Amino acid sequence: MSSVKVAVRVRPFNNREIGRQAKCVISMKDKTTAIQHPKQSKDVKAFNFDYSYWSHTNEQDPNFAGQSKVYQDIGEEMLQHAFEGYNVCIFAYGQTGAGKSYTMMGKPEPRDQQGIIPQLCEELFDKIKTQESKDLQFSVEVSYMEIYCERVRDLLNPKNKGNLRVREHPLLGPYVEDLSKLAVTSFNEINTLMDEGNKARTVAATNMNETSSRSHAVFTVVFTQRRHDEMTDLSTEKVAKISLVDLAGSERANATGAKGDRLKEGANINKSLTTLGKVIHALAESSQSGDMKKIIKSQSGSKKRKKSDFIPYRDSVLTWLLRENLGGNSKTAMIAALSPADINYEETLSTLRYADRAKQIVCKAVVNEDPNARLIRELKEEVMRLKELLKSEGLADLVETMYTKSDGSTPLLSPTDELNANVPNKNLQLQPHNLNGPASPSDGGQRIMTPRNEDAMEQLRASEKLIAELNETWEEKLKKTELVKQEREAALAELGVALDGTGTTIGVCSPKNTPHLVNLNEDPLMSECLLYYIKPGIMKVGSTHADIILSGPHIRDHHCTFESREKNGEIIVTVTPEKSATIFVNGKTVEGPLLLKTGHRVILGKNHVFRFNHPEQARQEREKTPSTETPGTVEAQLGEPVDWTFAQMELLEKQGIDMKLEMEKRLLAMEEQYRREKEEADQLLEQQRLDYESKLQALQSQVERASLLSGCTTPEYSTDDEQGESEPSWTEKEYQLAQWAFIKWRYHQFTSLRDDLWGNAIFLKEANAISVELKKKVQFQFVLLTDTMYSPLPPDLMPPDVASDQPYPRTIVAVEVHDLKNGATHYWTLDKLRQRLELMREMYDSTAEMTTTSAADCPVESLTGGDPFYDRFPWFRLVGRAFVYLSNLLYPVGIVHRVAVVSEKGDVRGWLRVAVQHVTDDDAPDCTGGVCQTGTARIAFNQEELQKKIDAENEAEANIPSGEELRIVEGQDDEEASEASAAAAAAAAAGGDGQKTPAEEEGEEEDSWVQFMKEHPHLKLGTTFTFRVTLLQASGIPPEYADVFCQFNFLHRHDEAFSTEPLKNTGKGPPLGFYHVQNISVVVTKSFIEYIRSQPLVFEVFGHYQQHPLHMQAKEEVIMQRRMPRTFPQSLPLAKPVPSPRHGRVPTTPNLNMTHCSYDLLGWWEICELGPSGEYIAAVVDHSDEKPCQGVFMLHQGIQRRIRVTLVHEPGQDVVWKGVKEVVIGRIRNKLEVKGPDGEVSALSLNICSQGYLYPPHDLRVFYQFEAAWDSSLHNSKLLNRVTPYREKVYMTVSAYIELDNCAQPACITKDLCLTIHSRDARLSQPRSLRSLFGSGYYRSPDSNRVSSVYELSLKHSSPEGSPGVQRRRRRVLDTSTTYVRGEENLAGWRPRGDSLIFEHQWELEKLTRLEQVERVRHLLLLREKMGIVSGEEGKEIRWILGEGDDDTVDRQITLLDKCLKLWSMEPLQLYVEDTDVDDDDDDDPAGMIRSVSTPVLSSTLVENSPQHSPAKSPVPPPPLGAADSEGPLPEGVAVPVLPPLPPDSTDDNPDYQALYIPAVEEIRVSPVVSRKGYLNFLEEKTSGWIKRWVVVRRPYVYMYNNEKDPVERGLINLATAQVEYSEDQQAMLKTPNTFSVCTKHRGFLLQTLGDKDVHDWLYAINPLLAGTIRSKLARRAAYLRI
User: Fold this and answer.
1) pLDDT at 149
2) Whole-angstrom Cα distance, residue 64 to residue 61?
3) Are 1177 and 1268 in contact (CB under 8 A)?
4) Among 406, 338, 292, CA closest to 13
5) Quick one: DSSP state of residue 341?
């Protein structure tokens, strides 16, 4: 017993895989083959096989395995088993295109590319030649078959065109009946048969492989060894059956692109391979359990067998024929062909698992010794048994007369007389009268053939045929092989295929006797490639059901007939055309029968050209022509070659067609076409020129208007402008002042920060809403981070566009993530927030239908970072930073510092005691008392790096003028600003004299360094200077940090830090004693001296947060989450207004001042068509599905139309419609998206037909309606002029410019409409949706033929003229904080931070700056005290250390300090604010004006100087800084200045004054999320009773319909501005249960639910907070009643 040998082989990339840039996922090492998942690099699966062949590279690779290597390992071993007498099988398996056929067959040339089968056959005959002797004889027989679609075909016998039957014999097993077994004597013969079989094999091209094998091929070699023993005179035989199988590739239909026949073939291939897999699996399982014997016994006749023991061999023809090779009497080897590409990962992994299973199969092979004698004997016994069976059934006479000759004798059955006869011999004919003739007397007068008798006779015939084949001698087999070869050569020669002496195909040649037609083509290479033989009899030619099928526009179904008959011993061919068929012979039309002669040119139709060849006639003409003359061919007679060109010219000449005249006609036609196209191009160019001229005229008119406005200025102003055009002469100080101003405003970034805050507020709101609903206990809020010494920005938060030499610190907008679960705080960038938000949305969708877990649990993802709400956080967290200055090292003075540990927010989190002193060689380290000495560290100070950093930090200070710094506060009067600017300029100009040259400055600098070296000999340049830093104690560290350690480093050497050991911190007892000593040795350079003079050491304190979640030992299982698909309908983007072709682009962008009022508009859009009665009737609208435009208008072609628009809103005095200025239609398209810019040519302005107010009864709302005539043909659009194809929609944009009575510009209302054009006579009706089929009826109200839209109309105050600062603060900001997001109602008043965050951050930066200055001053005072310096020359030296200037500068600073002290000592003035000037609501409007921020002194001055100020107003004290919680452009933490009073002509005292507003219309998209829908009873003002309406809550709006079938919104309520009230007392007073009220700014509604249980559900949908409060009260009341 032996197991199946399994080998795997990986091929190189093919063209398809190279084109798709595939990657290799297969790796091999020795006998191990590994496959890596293409998307998960850690997912690697390894398999062990007998052989692993790496053929992915070329022969230069030492690990490359070629064809010879594969044959040496597998082929030679299997051939040796065959010589030993064993049955051998080698089969290749793999997906299509994996290299199976290449491994088995290979390529014929070169020889090293030959596969296993050719190499094995060649070596077989080589061994036969070496081992053959007189006593040992060899014989080889081959058969070649293919299994195509579960049908067996013989590939070696051309007569076996049908399907062969597969039978099973009890002794022989499964075999193929009538399969040709041909004897071969050399490798050339077997190679020829192999080549012929491969040509007959079924192949086809797929996407995976151009020559894909579509069938299983089995090449069988029966190898017989006959040995004669002279001593005993006995002969023995060994018969080995070598089965070489090339399986068809497994494939997937979507990968191969199989269709039709290819798809059917693939299905059958996969079926047989699936059965083979089942067989291999069953055999492997049985081999492992050791039940192989039991299986064989159960299949041989035992009735008791388990289901798992059954081997499904018979499920497929392939497995049935390979039964002995799979787990039977055979030595079997399997080669698995692999594809290395990652795109075929699944198929390759399946192949590896397939091969791994096959490795476990155990076969029981035995030596086949002398099987023929045994088989003949057993077959004869079976024949005798069958004869006895028939005799017992009374059919003895039938058996005796079954095979008889015509003379009555009964010969021995010999099938060699006829190769493929169904009966053994022609003369052995089954007599019909023996079966159905008169019966013998024993039959009772009638013979009855039962199914059992028929089966017995069939078995008898098969057994006798097998006996005849076994008794067939070797000479008979050779004769039969030769006979088959001759028949094949004759058949190919008749077809015109020439063969050489060995039977190899040479090419196509002209038949020797048969007349035929050969094609002629315009391409010489395509000529004479098709042969049509005219066989004796009549052959039909046509497009269908003909012997010769041709295609083309002039070929009829029955075109003509060719008749070939013999006359006077000569074959003649006549062509007869059918009626009205086009046939030309030698250029002449054929209308009746015509005799063809060799060389005639035959044209069928107008495209098929042939030449008629008659071999006999050509031979006779050559014999008649003398040998000295040119042979009498057609070419010789005509003097030119007879080809396609000759036939065409002959046709034109005979038909009387003048080619020159035809060419002239075509030339004239082309000239006419060119002239017409040139005229069209000139017209188009002229139209474009006129369009550009009109645009230029419009631009010129705008320039003229601008010049007229500019001409209204005063002469002085014009003179100044003209003078200002000349180049000014600036001094050096003025240049420095301009440079400083440019740098300051270049890095001014508060405006961009404001844009980021308001533009990303919607993302922050959505993240918080999802966090609350998923109970994540994570809060998100905006935060501003600035790169300062106390709060340096980490690299992941640093913007990529920050310049390295930026003089001012960079401030960014980040997201502060409060992880309340783990007590951690993280900072995200805005990009990271958007990325995490996508993951949050997916998590929210996937957990929608899952059971909500406990909120107190901490998932694993919160620690590992897999959850998008959480981030990884380190074990130690930063407590704060401290800075110790080193200027005491300039003197041999040691100082013990007590510095504050400051957090990133500016809070003091503790104190550090640090000692810094100079160390000499005599000083010994102190290691007593717990002091930790760590040795001496050597630090190098690079002059260039440090100088570059210091220059970048001090660039701003260096560019500031020496005079007093200029500060401009936005909001000051122009006069104050101009005075301050003039004073600064004068100060700058005054200090411009007395400047020194760079050479003088450099000389003075060198002198100062020389003087410095004399005064400080211990800091001599180039010497080694050592100082000691001792970290003594830390105190005041918060107790929530358990383990505390400290590290320090230089500012420019972050990578070299000195750290202490962690200490336990309890927050009680004595301070933490580090006592860490670090000696630092430095080579003195100028950069080092500059550093210790002005730069500090950075100390960072870290601590372990005690509430770290890793302390918790509980772990939870990860819940598998299933993602739910989104089912939101497709929607259009918000439509932009169409520009007006009459008035140009009407300004639609309002001046965004304070909002005066806002209204919700409900618009109804209708398209009316002229009806038979002369009235315009609304066109039918399709509301059947969720349409992007709320409906599709179904219009008729070629009918007059009108656009009707109705606007509905609540009554108010501010909105008074004056009239429609223009209605414009444009952007005609058939896609949702709008592509390309708008043009005035594409827009069409409509004529207004009617407009005015409507007054429907019992409705207090305002209805304004207008109509406009629309002629769609004026658009000149193909989409509107034709009938819309099926499944296509036409989209267009309609804009209406409507003037209001109190507005300076019209309001623009825009809507995208969707429509389809139908034929004029089409009968259109509203399509019924699927939902309406299950309802009680369909809503057919005539007013449902409209689509609705919702708009928000806001009236803004017109913008007054102001300072540039005011205009800049009123700049438009994209405010997303007010946009509704799903779950916003659960945030309980949370709002994203806005403008107040900027002002608070300014205060934080100021606090950090002051803390840094305090540390510098503390160090200065401590150094003064240590050195005992009070004033004098030493004081000047200390000022030089701090970077101060000369004495004049110090005196000026002292004077400034005195002024500040006087101002601080003054009593603060009371600040009065007008009540009308304070509007709390405006604090939240990001688009409004940010008010001026000034000091209380300035505000007080403004109030006192105001003439309209009334002292009766109560004083408003300024609130403390940092106390503002509300968001908006104006924080509460800043004092509110009083705005200047309005002019007298604009106040309420002037009755003629009327304020103008700017209208802003914004379309509101209907939310796809429905909170609740159902019926409610409404009781409105001035109504007589309750009205039942269908209500749908889509936050933030409530939409009302007439009933549930109504597709059009009839009304709406804005919940954002409405107030919901619920009171049981009110219900008791009204005696109406289940009611609640909704009050808007204009009117109120009383709503009643239809059931008691629906009240709280409706309240939760409308106002969740109110519903939660009510439920809480009811629960407390119920608990109280239970008590």
Assistant:
1) 81
2) 5
3) no
4) 338
5) B
Q: What is the mean pLDDT of residues 412-420?
A: 38
| 8-state DSSP, 1630 | H
Strands (E), 101-202: 136-148, 151-154, 166-169, 173-176, 182-184
What span, in angstroms and rounded, lies between the C-alpha atoms of 414 and 1608? 92
Instruction: Give the Cα separation of 1151 and 1129 in Å (integer).
Output: 35
User: Which among 1360, 1220, 1352, 1402 has a CA at the least distance from the CA of 1294?
Assistant: 1220
> For residue 1627, how many other CB atoms are within 10 A of its CB?
16
- Do residues 1316 and 1192 make contact, with C-beta atoms less than 8 angstroms apart? yes
Full-model pTM: 0.37
As given in the structure block, the two tokens for residue 1485 are 């409007």
3-state secondary structure of 927: coil
Q: pLDDT category, 621, cuts 50, 70, 90? A: confident
C-alpha to C-alpha distance for 1613 and 1596, rounded to whole angstroms? 9
CA–CA separation, 562 vs 595, rounded Å?
A: 10
d(CA 477, CA 419): 11
Closest CA to 1363 of 975, 980, 967: 975
Residue whose entry in the numeric block shows the structure tokens 């791994």: 356
Residues linked to residue 1245 through DSSP beta bridges, in sequence order: 1224
Residue-level length of the chain: 1683
CB contact at 8 A, 1260 and 1237: no
DSSP readout, 311-362? --GGGSHHHHHTTTTTTSSSEEEEEEEE--BGGGHHHHHHHHHHHHHHTT-E
CA distance 1451 to 456: 135
Residues with Cβ < 8 Å from 425, sequence gap 6 or more? 403, 411, 413, 414, 415, 417, 418
Confidence at residue 1092, expressed as pLDDT on a 0 to 100 scale: 86
CA quadruple 200, 201, 206, 210: dihedral positive or negative? negative
CA distance 140 to 224: 6
Residues 6+ apart with CB under 8 A from 944: none
Kindly indicate the confidence band of residue 420, based on its pLDDT and cuts at 50, 70 and 90.
Answer: very low
Angle (CA) 1155 1157 1159, round 5°: 125
User: What is the Cα–Cα distance from 1065 to 1038, expressed in whole angstroms?
Assistant: 8
For 23-70, the three-class secondary structure string (H helix, E strand, C coil) is CECEEEECCEEEEECCCCCCCEEEEECCEEEECCCCCCCCCECCHHHH
271 SS3 class:
helix
Which residues make beta-bridge pairs with 1350? 1162, 1564
Q: Which of 964, 995, 948 is nearest to 740 (CA)?
A: 964
The secondary structure of 1283-1296 as a DSSP string is: PPPTT--EEEEEEE
**Residue 1555 and residue 1016: Cα distance in Å, rounded?**
76
Q: Does residue 495 or residue 549 have the better pLDDT?
A: 549
- Dist CA 769 CA 766 (whole Å): 5
Cα separations (Å) of 1666 from 1016, 1575, 1591? 77, 21, 19
**CA 129/CA 117 separation, integer angstroms:** 19
